[in-house]
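Annotators were shown the component list below and the corresponding predicted structure, then asked to write short factual statements about the assembly.
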Amino acid sequence: GIQVEQSPPDLILQEGANSTLRCNFSDSVNNLQWFHQNPWGQLINLFYIPSGTKQNGRLSATTVATERYSLLYISSSQTTDSGVYFCAGGPNEKLTFGTGTRLTIIP
Amino acid sequence: DGGITQSPKYLFRKEGQNVTLSCEQNLNHDAMYWYRQDPGQGLRLIYYSQIVNDFQKGDIAEGYSVSREKKESFPLTVTSAQKNPTAFYLCASSSRTGSVFGQETQYFGPGTRLLVL
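Structure shown to annotators:
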């Protein structure tokens, strides 16, 4: 099956800083999504982005499908951005999740 | 309010006992999913269903069973055959929109934490 590698595993930043999270896939995917898991365990879908670039407020994502990676950008970080960010991908509805990047924003 | 509800929030299982986790959605989504999350890990797919009365095994289906008798409901039973059931269980759903089914945004419920006594 598809292997999903996320980096970095942990990231600690001061409030207001920018960050880039990366996700590499071992094979091509037609379905690629980014999620944020808050400290209480709730997962929120951030982007459905099998290719191209999307932006939503301070967050944006870019997927280069031919090179099998995706990037999530967070600008002007706020403490509410803390949590674990997961990418997940697959050929169809069967998503394989990475192990996540734990982001901690310090006030 | 549209969304996905899971109950209970916490569940305790005794040795040899089967327990059932509830997942209900009022988003009119066709597809529903069950995932398991262990501490410090990503999510792993247990079962998924694309339509009523049909479901498919995911990557870790052994020791679990599901049913899909209604579009809005997808209960998961953790059987006594699942020897290590302690985990956080998450239910998700997605709609059949667009030209290619299976590539839609997944929305998650709040989860159920299962602990073994």
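Statements collected:
1. The mean pLDDT of chain B is 91.
2. Residues 32 and 93 of chain B are 4 Å apart (CA to CA).
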